[in-house]
C-alpha cells in the first residue's frame, strides 16, 4: 500500500458501512426497474479495439425498458462543497482535459495510461432514446497512486482529475484523463454527478444524479501491468466487482464499454439515463 490511505477512513472511500444507506436506495431502484434491462456492457482486451462505442453491444440502451442510472455515494472526496473544498466554483473547472491542475493550484499533471471518458446523458422516461443536451456532468477520480486531489496527503494543493462539461446536442461529454489506480477496499471507478445545466454545476447546486462508472477486470489487469501502477496490482488482487461495497448488488448498467489498449490509451463509454 502506498501510504496515502493509511491514516483512516478520510483517506479512501469508507466501504459498506459508509455507503449502506445509498445501497439500500439503490436496491429499491433496481427492484422497481425490474429484470428487463439489457446490460450496458462491452467486451474488452488489451491492445485491440473490442467494442465499437456505436455498436448495440457496447453501450446502447435497451428498447424494451430503461431505468435511471443507479444512485451511489459521492464518497468522501467530492470537491463539490459537500465535504469541505468546492472546486466547482473555481474558474477553469469547465474543461475537457482534466489531467492537469488549474487556477491557483500547484500545476501538477497526473501521469498514467491515457483514458478518454465519454458519457451520454439520456432521458430515462423516454426509454433512453432521447439525449439530454444542455445538461452538465462533473467527473472526478483518484490518480495512478490512488490519491484524490484536494484531499489526499501529498496532493492537497492539486485539483487535477476533476472537471465539468456541458452535454452536446447528442447528450455527450468527453473527458481526457488517465486510468485511475486501485486503492485498498474499492474496485477501480470514476465518480460523476449530473446537473440540469452548466449554471447549476458551476454553482454546485441541484444535483440530479450521482453515480460511479466501473472498469472491466481484464482492462484493469492490463493497465496495472504497466509502469507506475505497482500498488494497484496488489490492491486489486483481493477484490472483485461482486464483492465491492458499491457494485456488489449489480454493476451491469455502470460497467464501461472499453476500446483501445495500453500503448495508445483506452476509451471508456457509458450511457447515463437520468
**Unreliable segments (pLDDT under 50, ≥5 consecutive)?**
1-64
Intertermini distance? 37 Å
What percent strand? 15-25%
Shape: globular
| Helix-strand sequence | HHEEEEEEHEHHEE
Mean pLDDT: 83
Structural class: alpha+beta
Query: How many β-strand stretches?
Result: 9
> What is the helix fraction of residues, given as a range?
10-25%
Radius of gyration, in angstroms, nearest whole number: 17 Å
| Major sheet size, sense and barrel closure | 5 strands, mixed
Q: Total helix count?
A: 5
Word description of this protein:
The protein contains 5 helices and 9 strands, in the order H-H-E-E-E-E-E-E-H-E-H-H-E-E. The chain is an alpha+beta fold and 274 residues long. It has helices at 16-33, 56-59, 198-202, 217-224, 230-237; strands spanning 114-123, 130-131, 136-140, 162-166, 172-178, 189-195, 207-214, 257-261, 265-273. The strands form 2 sheets. Strands 1, 2, 5, 8 and 9 form a 5-stranded mixed beta sheet that branches.
Summarize the structure.
The protein is of the alpha+beta class and 274 residues long.
Describe the secondary-structure layout.
Blueprint lengths: L15 H18 L22 H4 L54 E10 L6 E2 L4 E5 L21 E5 L5 E7 L10 E7 L2 H5 L4 E8 L2 H8 L5 H8 L19 E5 L3 E9 L1
Parallel strand pairs: 1-9
Antiparallel strand pairs: 1-2, 1-5, 3-4, 3-6, 6-7, 8-9
Amino acid at each position: 500500500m502506498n501510504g496515502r490511505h493509511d491514516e483512516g477512513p478520510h483517506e479512501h472511500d469508507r466501504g459498506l458501512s459508509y455507503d449502506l444507506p445509498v445501497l439500500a436506495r439503490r436496491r429499491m431502484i433496481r427492484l422497481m426497474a425490474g429484470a428487463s434491462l439489457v446490460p450496458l456492457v462491452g467486451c474488452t482486451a488489451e491492445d485491440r479495439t473490442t467494442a465499437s462505442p456505436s455498436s448495440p453491444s457496447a453501450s446502447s440502451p435497451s428498447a424494451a425498458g430503461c431505468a435511471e442510472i443507479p444512485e451511489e455515494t459521492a464518497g468522501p472526496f467530492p470537491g463539490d462543497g459537500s465535504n469541505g473544498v468546492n472546486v466547482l466554483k473555481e474558474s477553469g473547472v469547465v474543461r475537457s482535459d482534466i489531467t492537469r491542475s488549474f487556477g491557483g493550484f500547484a500545476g501538477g499533471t497526473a501521469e498514467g495510461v491515457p483514458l478518454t471518458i465519454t458519457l451520454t446523458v439520456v432521458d430515462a422516461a423516454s426509454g433512453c432514446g432521447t439525449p439530454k443536451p444542455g445538461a452538465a456532468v462533473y467527473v472526478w477520480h483518484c490518480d495512478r497512486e490512488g490519491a484524490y486531489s484536494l484531499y489526499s496527503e501529498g496532493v492537497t494543493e492539486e485539483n487535477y482529475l476533476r472537471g465539468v462539461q456541458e452535454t452536446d446536442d447528442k447528450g455527450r461529454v468527453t473527458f481526457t484523463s488517465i486510468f485511475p489506480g486501485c486503492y485498498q477496499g474499492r474496485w477501480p471507478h470514476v465518480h460523476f454527478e449530473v446537473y440540469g445545466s452548466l449554471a447549476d454545476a458551476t454553482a454546485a447546486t441541484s444535483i440530479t444524479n450521482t453515480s460511479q462508472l466501473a472498469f472491466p477486470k481484464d482492462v484493469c489487469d492490463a493497465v496495472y501491468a504497466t509502469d507506475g501502477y505497482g500498488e494497484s496490482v496488489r490492491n486489486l488482487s483481493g477484490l472483485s466487482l461482486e464483492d465491492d461495497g458499491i457494485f456488489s448488488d449489480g454493476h451491469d448498467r455502470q460497467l464501461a464499454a472499453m476500446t483501445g489498449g495500453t500503448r495508445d490509451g483506452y476509451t471508456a463509454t457509458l450511457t447515463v439515463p437520468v
